[in-house]
Amino acid sequence: MSRPVRVGLLGLGTVGGAVAKAMGERAKRLEASAGHPLELAGACVRDATKPRGVDARLVTDAFEILDDESIQIVVEVIGGHRPALDLHLAAFERGKHVVTANKEVVAKEWRVLHEAARSAKRELRFEAAVAAAVPVVAAARALGAVRPRILSGLVNGTTTYICSRIEAGAGFDEALREAQAKGYAEADPSADVDGWDAAYKLSILVSLLEGRWFRPEQVSRTSLRSLTVDAVREAASRDRRIRYLAVADFGERATKARVGPEEVSSSSLEGQASGPTNVVRIETDLAGTLTFMGPGAGGDATASAILGDVIQIARGLR
Ligand SMILES: NC(=O)c1ccc[n+]([C@@H]2O[C@H](COP(=O)([O-])OP(=O)(O)OC[C@H]3O[C@@H](n4cnc5c(N)ncnc54)[C@H](OP(=O)(O)O)[C@@H]3O)[C@@H](O)[C@H]2O)c1
């Protein structure tokens, strides 16, 4: 039998909990895909006394995971810039592969993280950081031969939900509260409604398609707070809808990227979306227009992408 691959989780919240649960419930499927049994070696949390309902060794010091020589893959699902950055770097220094759903640290620290992975000869994988279950990171990597022309779509479920609820007559604050109650919203709603979350994701996709770092500050952001109920109603009277679009225009000289509320046709995939469904369209020269759509948030959908990355790494291990 092949040797188990041991995985350490940093974070056991919505996403980490779903990863732990899936590892417990579908061990046979994971082993068949990875070519090794996958073992959950432990999980780092802030509060070890919180009830979790998952069977994992809990620690509150991340270095108990990072210094464990039996662990080959670290999954960081804490989120945010720090301490995530330091934990990724410490993992590479200790010869571990890193898988993450954390778009903020990947977008902000693209160069530092890729260089650390390269010098450690280890992998940094982040499929879950953009559009959760929808494999757009893999797609962008696979499109190395094409010239992208336009990338556009919906990459933030909270703003889609808010736009669709305003269409149905809700006020902005009421719609935001509902999105938080449904678990779509990030802990800090500014990350969603002021466009940071979408900007991080767009920065990652453009960086992959261009083969060089496109910084999140290069994405121009218009807050959803600028959207008025009147604008939504006026658009509806012309059979149009307003959605929080992420757009990159790969011009001849420079790439321009923006996120903000824009009009779309009511019958388009974007116009029809009302919650965490993400849509990403990539117009290219060689490959025509490719469209990706599916669940862009939620614990299980994100765990699917994370475990896909873990499997890819495990397949390369002896
Ligand atoms: N939720 C989604 O649908 C989704 C989708 C795609 C990507 N993501 C990304 O996935 C990441 C995790 O999101 P989430 O929704 O799972 O967040 P979450 O529910 O808030 O979970 C965060 C986890 O990290 C732990 N934690 C926080 N600070 C820590 C620290 N300093 N040291 C050790 N542990 C710490 C928390 O511990 P306690 O449990 O003890 O508080 C918790 O277990 C984020 O980068 C997010 O953007 C989320």
Task: Give a short overview.
With 318 residues, the chain is of the alpha/beta class. It has helices at residues 14-25, 27-34, 62-66, 84-93, 103-108, 110-120, 136-142, 157-167, 172-181, 189-193, 196-210, 229-237, 269-272, 299-315; strands at 5-10, 38-44, 58-59, 73-76, 97-100, 124-125, 148-154, 219-221, 240-250, 255-265, 277-284, 289-295.
Structural account:
The chain contains 14 helices and twelve strands. With 318 residues, it is α/β, with parallel strands linked by helices. The chain has two domains: 5-132 and 300-315, Rossmann fold (3-Layer(aba) Sandwich); 136-294, Dihydrodipicolinate Reductase, domain 2 (2-Layer Sandwich), CATH 3.30.360.10. Strand 4 (73-76), helix 4 and strand 5 (97-100) form a beta-alpha-beta unit. The radius of gyration is 20 Å and the shape is globular. The mean pLDDT is 96. Bound molecules: NADP nicotinamide-adenine-dinucleotide phosphate (NAP). NADP nicotinamide-adenine-dinucleotide phosphate is lined by residues 11-16, 44-47, 50, 62, 77-79, 83, 101-103, 128, 132, 187, 297-298, 302.
**What distance lies between the first and last C-alpha atoms, to the nearest angstrom?**
12 Å
The CATH architecture of the largest domain would be 2-Layer Sandwich
Q: What helical percentage do the residues reach? A: 40-55%
Strand order of the largest sheet: 3-2-1-4-5-6
- The tally of strands reads 12
How many separate helices? Answer: 14
Report the portion of residues in β strands. Answer: 15-25%
Query: What is the H/E order?
Result: EHHEEHEHEHHEHEHHHHEHEEHEEH
CATH top level class name of the largest domain: Alpha Beta
Form type: globular
User: What is Rg?
Assistant: 20 Å
User: Which spans have pLDDT < 50 for at least 5 consecutive residues?
Assistant: none
Give the count of structural domains: 2
Structural class: alpha/beta
At the fourth level of CATH, the homologous superfamily of the largest domain is Dihydrodipicolinate Reductase, domain 2
Average pLDDT reading: 96
